[in-house]
Amino acid sequence: MEAEANSGSPEDSWAFIQRPGEGCRTVPLAGHVGFDSLPDQLVNQSVSQGFCFNILCVGETGLGKSTLMDTLFNTKFEGEPATHTQPGVQLQSNTYDLQESNVGLKLTIVSTVGFGDQINKEDSYRPIVEFIDAQFEAYLQEELKIRRLLHNYHDSRIHACLYFIAPTGHSLKSLDLVTMKKLDSKAHLPFAVIGSTEELKIGNKMVKARQYPWGTVQVENEAHCDFVKLREMLIRVNMEDLREQTHSRHYELYRRCKLEEMGFKDTDPDSKPFSLQETYEAKRNEFLGELQKKEEEMRQMFVQRVKEKEAELKEAEKELHEKFDRLKKLHQDEKKKLEDKKKSLDDEVNAFKQRKTAAELLQSQGSQAGGSQTLKRDKEKKKTREEKSISDRTCTTPGKHPVVPCALVVCAV
Q: What phi and psi values does residue 80 have, to the nearest 5 degrees?
């Protein structure tokens, strides 16, 4: 069968390749081979690459988040103390390189600044959930790249979330219940315990403890608190398991939901296996169909808009023509009125001129007639004066005959 498979075409050869896990049988070895060193190789590779671990500390300001981190990793992390005057919840991320023996750890501590300090705490959890999803999204985008660099990628996904509860002695606040419920599907959620970086002398030795008015609580005394159990669970036993569970559970849940939102599925409508290429082609065809449909809708909408605009323009043009006709008719009417008025004025002017001419003529004739009468009256007056003058010169001598006046000839000039 092997000879037939090797002598055939590549397509025939693939038909005879056995799938892993199907019909496998255990075969004894005749001697030492060496693949039993794979765990050592994996350890050496992991140690050379180093490890990363990301912790999210959620709690109100002043509950000891920084102190517990210092106690867990037996060091003093630098950081500025937070205040209660933040306008909203902010997430502050700090990354540190730690070295223990020959193992390197890149530790990222994310703290919620201003959590629970607002009057309205309804959406205080939202920035935290959005931050966790943003780290998942960043890893997914790197994973979907054609040229991926996951071996050098700084994984910022949250591996563990420590939730700090105020030691009031009462039940949990509604803010705590809502926030923990929202974070349950996003990250592993252990609860914080008492931590302290101060050492007090208890008996003959110095131990880490916290002094209270009612007594002293030893941090590493299991009869006093569960700090040792938390450190064992979080760092010494389950750190790698938390990293793996973050990738295989929380990230996979986010990745699956995100890809399903994008339209990718593992099976077709008939529940048959569906490869990524087939999913891509189906999604591409679906997208192209939707694109063509939208293009057709946009074209129809454009045509409809053009028709509506043409109708509006025609209506506006019709209104303009009607308005022009009205204005033209009004202009013609006004022009006719002005022309009639001008003609009437011209007639009045002509009549006035005629009356003026007649008046001037009459006045001229009257002036001539008046001049003749005046001349006649002047002659008569002059004649009368002359006659009177002659009469006055006729003298009578007393006792004698009257003197006969001399004859006087008056010539009219």
A: -90, 140
